[in-house]
Known about the structure:
Elements: E1 4-7, E2 10-13, E3 18-24, E4 32-39, E5 46-52, E6 55-58, E7 66-71, E8 76-81, E9 90-98, E10 106-107, E11 111-116
Parallel strand pairs: 2-11
Antiparallel strand pairs: 1-3, 3-8, 4-5, 4-9, 5-6, 7-8, 9-10, 9-11
Amino acid sequence: QVHLVESGGGLVQAGGSLRLSCAASERTFSNFVMAWFRQAPGKEREFVATIIGNLTYHVASVKGRFTISRDNAKNTVYLQMNNLKLEDTAVYYCAARAITASTYDHWGQGTQVTVSS
C-alpha cells in the first residue's frame, strides 16, 4: 500500500503562486505514475497533471501556469501553481498507480487551495 501525504495548500490571492507537495511512502516510488487531481465544490474530481518518468502532461486549463515535477530521491511529487485564478479553488489530491495499472488506486487525503480576488 502506497501512503500519500499532500501539503502546501492554503489561501492565496488571484495571480499568486503555491507549491503543493506529495510525499510517498513507497520505496519504489520512481516506478509509479504520479498525478494531481482536484475537486471544486459541487463539481466532479478532475485530472490536472501527470508525470511518468520525466514525461509530463497538463490539462489545457492549467498548461503554462502549473508544472508537475518529481524528486525520486525524496519520494516526492510537486505541483507548482503560478498565476492562480479563482477557478483553481479546489481540494487538490495526489494519486499514484503502477505503470501497468489502468486506474489510480492510491490517493492522498487532499489539500485545500483557495484563491481569493
